[in-house]
Amino acid sequence: MFRLCQHVHSASQMNAPSPSLDPVDWHGFRVQAHRMLDDIIDYLEYIRERPVWQPTPQVVRDRFRGPVPKQPTDLALVHDDFMHDILPYAVGNAHPGFMGWVHGGGNPAGMLAEMLAGGLNANLGGRDHAPIEVELQIVEWIRQLFGFPETASGLFVTGTSMANFIGVLVARTAALGPEVRRRGVATSGKQLIAYTSAAAHGCIGRAMDFAGFGSAALRIVPTDRQYHIDLAALKAARSI
């Protein structure tokens, strides 16, 4: 289904070697890109007329079981595949009627921002370039909005699961010292225990596993009717 993509000018160019990953025909690529942008904007503009979610038919699933492609495919054909076999069967979170799970629906401006960021393809791990300043500015804005101290900092990660994993690693280093990053948890001779609400996401247990503590080192504390952690139960758990 997802095939190696290169916008080709004609069938005779399918097997022609290319010295670049650039489109063979920039004008044709631009026309196709505008078509794709118009289609996805139409999808968002009229999404209220669609069902929130619908199951993927078996005939569509079967199209994702093909062999490895050996030749490039015209970008327009890949786009058509997307429109017919993927877009109608998405998870539904972009729909205003979506009420499940925790991920947001995004917005049209955010979609365009993703396009610009994808075209820039910036690496924010270092060096001297403007996208780093953008990230630092947004972190500072978040610090101010939430009233964190001026010494607070942060970074952007792929999602909540990774954020919680990093939080466990920070707690591990705070409890065992920075040497734990080099020598590992086992050499400390300590069994650290973590506590979390019964309403917490399952990624907390996985973070304990990944950090080397073991998921059994996580104590699950019950909640009250408002889903607040039961402080009395927490105190009792900590005394065990």
Written overview of the protein:
- Strands 1-2 form a two-stranded parallel sheet.
- It has 2 domains: about 10-120, Alpha-Beta Complex (Aspartate Aminotransferase, domain 1); about 160-240, no CATH class.
- Strand 1 (about 195), helix 8 (about 205-210) and strand 2 form a beta-alpha-beta unit.
- With about 240 residues, the chain is mainly alpha-helical.
- It has helices spanning about 25-45, 60, 75-85, 110-120, 130-145, 160-175, 180-185, 205-210, 230-240, and strands at about 195, 220.
- The chain contains 9 helices and 2 strands.
- The longest helix has 20 residues, at about 25-45.
- About 40% of the residues lie in helices and about 5% in strands.
Which terms summarize this structure?
240 residues, mainly alpha, Aspartate Aminotransferase, domain 1, 2 domains, two-stranded parallel sheet, 9 helices, 3% strand, extended, disordered N terminus
SSE pattern, N- to C-terminal: HHHHHHHEHEH
CATH architecture of the largest domain: Alpha-Beta Complex
Question: What does the overall shape look like?
Answer: extended
Helix content estimate? 40-55%
Strand content: under 5%
User: How many extended strands?
Assistant: 2
CATH topology of the largest domain: Aspartate Aminotransferase, domain 1
Structural category is mainly alpha
Strand order of the largest sheet: 1-2
Q: Major sheet, described briefly? A: 2 strands, parallel
Number of helices: 9
Instruction: Please give the CATH class of the largest domain.
Output: Alpha Beta
Intertermini distance: 54 Å
Integer count of domains = 2
Question: In terms of per-residue confidence, which ranges show pLDDT below 50 for 5 or more consecutive residues?
Answer: 1-15
How confident is the prediction overall: mean pLDDT? 90
Question: What is the radius of gyration?
Answer: 25 Å
